[in-house]
Amino acid sequence: MDEAKIAKLAKWAQAEVRALIRRAEEAEFENEQLRANTFGDEGSNTYLQPYDDQPVLLPNNGLVEYRLGYGSEDRVQVHVDHRNPDRLEIRGLVGIKIYPTASNVVMVEIAE
């Protein structure tokens, strides 16, 4: 819809149309990023690795949150430690248990 047509509308309708146009533009931009598998910066240390597709870049040092249970607090957050970029920080919104299962694997669960 061009600006001349929008200007003929009631003020509340103009605001609504402009808001819808903005939301559509944002959605188109996000869709382009999704199709390009990039939500983050090139060279980001954080990405989603689907098993059958290309990695999706996420923002560098991005916080990733996992919902492990059914409660609203049953979540675990993981990100690269900003003080030491060679390690991950894992924190639960409630208590968590960490079980080493191999020299390169740990399991994390919500503490009961």
SSE diagram, text form:
Blueprint: H1 3-7, H2 11-35, E1 47-48, E2 56-57, E3 64-67, E4 75-80, E5 88-92, E6 96-102, E7 105-110
Antiparallel strand pairs: 1-2, 3-4, 4-5, 6-7
Description:
The structure is a single chain. The chain has two domains: 1-36; 39-112, no CATH class. Helix content is 27%, strand content 29%. The chain has two helices and seven strands. The strands form three sheets. It has a three-stranded antiparallel sheet with strand order 3-4-5, with no helix packed on it. The chain starts with a helix and ends with a strand.
Read across the widest sheet, the strand sequence of neighbours is: 3-4-5
Domain tally = 2
Count of alpha and pi helical runs: 2
Instruction: Summarize model confidence as the mean pLDDT.
Output: 87
- Rg is 21 Å
> How far is it from the N-terminal to the C-terminal residue, by CA?
55 Å
β-strand percent reads: 25-35%
Backbone structural class: alpha+beta
Instruction: Identify low-pLDDT runs.
Output: none
Please write the string of helix (H) and strand (E) elements: HHEEEEEEE
Overall geometry: elongated
Give a count of the beta strands, DSSP E runs of length 2 or more: 7
For the sheet with most strands, the description reads: 3 strands, antiparallel
Helix content: 25-40%
